[in-house]
Amino acid sequence: AGADHPHRPAIHFTPAQNWMNDPNGLIYHDGVYHLYFQYNPEGDRWGNMSWGHATSTDLMTWEEQPLALPYTDEEHVFSGGIVFDEHNTSGLGTAEDPPLVALYTSAYTDSSERPGIQAQSLAYSLDGGYTWERYEGNPVLDIGSGEFRDPKVFWYEEGGYWVMSAVVATERKVHFYRSDDLVEWEFLSDFGPAHAVGGVWEVPDLFELPVDGDPSDTRWVLVVNLNPGSVAGGSGAQYFVGDFDGTRFTPEHLLEPGPPDGEVLADFEDGYGDWEVVNDLDGTGGDGPFGTAPASGTLPGQQEVVGYEGDRLVNTFVGGDAPRGHATSPEFTIDRDFVNLLVGGGNKPRTGEGGHATVDLVVDGEVVRSATGGDTEHLDWVSWDVSDLAGRTARLRVEDDATGGWGHVLLDHVVLSDGPAAGLADYDWLDWGRDYYAAVSYNDTPDDARVTMAWMNNWQYAQDTPTSPWRGAMALPRQLELETVDGRPRLVQNPVDQLESLYGEPVYERDRTQVPASGLDLPPAEPGRPYQVELTLRPGGAGEIGLRVHEGADQATVVGYNTAAQELFLDRSASGDTGFHHAFTSRSAVPMALEDGGVRLRVVVDTSSVEVFAAGGRATLTDLVFPDPGATGISVRADGGGGSVEDVTVRPLGPDPSGA
Ligand code: FRU
Question: Which amino acids bring their CB within 6 angstroms of ligand 1?
Fold first, then answer.
């Protein structure tokens, strides 16, 4: 590792060559952790889906094995799980030599007898997972769907049967099935749609965990991966905590998206409603030649300015000299505590360049609130607390500041209510960064530890990441636990303990240090060598304080805390090579209150990734980055003065690449 390409991670699994996506078939068996994965044996983009294979005894160092399940003319081998069929319930082994059984999705090709169908199939191994036979009676579960995939199976001890979860992706549903022999499957129930539904549901996982370490008080956790529509944009993983009674999963904390009952000010169901829409096509500030826009998205011969698309109001500004448009709502009285908007768009805020397309709340000619959507692919609720404006008369205005570049905002609903809307940031997420997808857990781990792996990537740009001759990496394996946070059980996640076996001697330790105005420089990293930074960031009077890693003259990845927004963020907008895809540049954030004035961070930095474990693992943020190999700087900076850091330890991870 490390030698063939500067972006090759040192402590994260990558295949020697070619494309990889989801982890599959995670199982600990005979002292070996198996990692199978979605793999293209013939290229560095998605296709020819097969199961690759790697093994490890410590979850940190991996040995790639020969291809486990190759695609055929009839089927591509999509994601799935593996169980150890100890009592040979399947009959595919013998009592003395019980099999490992893989349940995977057959994605049938046009040259098969089931073109376009996705169904669940079996393969088995009698040599501990190194070579695999397909079961002759495949598929074992076919519901006639083209979107039925990603089986994950476990032995349900209380009932004495196997349970499978699988998704019907486009319906945003998880289906549960039971079986006595892994071959015949009986439908139990389904779950969904719920919480985030701005994309398809994929790769489900259901498991039980003690709450606060008490084995007599357990909950079931259902992980549902989602693409796109995650909290940070694109692919991500949400989870639900609840009960599984052997038939049905019941979450104990379910939110209705959107505001509580309220007064709908606009829904755009029939066009603009009574909003005034003006497209200033001649740039004079008044009505352009088209005056009030037609009720269609694009104006003749022009880029879209203000338009109506589906049941949404759209404002896009394109190019420096393009005309601008705006839309204004009728006046209304602020007689409730919240104004809620369903908004999307906002490419420019992501890149930090150019102008802004915004939705503004205007009172007496002044903009008092302003919103932009986070993603062009999905809309999310924004809530403004307007209790300080009670009784005032207001308008909403959708506008572009026309200062160049690309601005885009979508507005779907406006609702006045007494409480805030539930949006993506209110749901439970495994990770709040951009690159943590297809998360799924190991079966049969020692001490029943719940260990997950995930593909460290995002379908938005996964095919374009600048690495060669491989493409795709796994995030660090994590151990999951349930801890009571703010009155209900939630997942806390930390790197598995085995990471400590890679610890080098600390190169920097400090109890407490003020951050000078010029910044606090820590010793630079060794080129190509991963490291871990543990520290507490204390903003004090600073508006923002941030740990900067992979820092060079013109680049850094920033893990920071913003005091006004009360959020922990991961900003890779100037992290090095960001230009290979327009959606790559990003700043992601998780809402988080300070504890005793600080936030404790554990940050693992590899050549092309940054993983943040915050507040003991209560929130995590994972991002890919592609910095210059020479960008080895590490520093802390605070703006506005007054920040400090506490209990800082920096140490290298893994072997010294120079061999010293
Ligand atoms: C998730 C996914 C799965 C599917 C696999 C195909 O990333 O789309 O739903 O089984 O990848 O490679």
Answer: 21-22, 38, 49, 78-79, 105, 149-150, 202-203, 438
Cβ density class 463-489: b for 16+ within 10 Å, e for less: bebbbeebbbbbbbbbbbbbeeeeeeb
| Mean pLDDT for back-to-back runs of 10 residues, the chain (660 residues) | 78 98 98 98 98 98 98 98 98 98 98 98 98 98 98 98 98 98 98 94 98 97 95 95 98 94 87 74 47 41 52 56 70 97 65 61 95 70 95 90 60 93 95 98 97 97 96 98 97 98 98 95 96 98 96 98 96 96 90 97 98 98 97 95 94 82
CA distances from 492 to 92, 205, 500 (A): 38, 16, 18
**Which of 22, 152, 165, 456 for mutating ligand 1's site (highest number of atoms within 8 Å of CB)?**
22
Which is it for strands 276-280 and 262-266: parallel, antiparallel or unpaired? unpaired
Q: From the alpha carbon of 49, which atom of ligand 1 is closest?
A: 12
Residue 509 lies in a domain: yes
pLDDT for the residue numbered 406: 54
Question: Is the same domain home to 146 and 242?
Answer: yes
Active site residue 261: no
Rounded Cα–Cα distance for residues 256 and 294 (Å): 34
pLDDT score of 315? 63
Q: Evaluate whether residue 490 is within a structural domain.
A: no
Residue 376 included in any domain: yes
Integer CA distances (angstroms), 658 to 13, 503, 528, in order? 20, 16, 9
Greatest Cα-to-Cα distance within the chain, rounded to the nearest angstrom: 85
pTM of the model: 0.91
What is the rounded distance in angstroms from the CA atom of residue 315 to the CA atom of residue 293?
Answer: 11
Q: In the numeric block, which tokens belong to residue 363?
A: 């009172």
Number of domains in the chain: 3
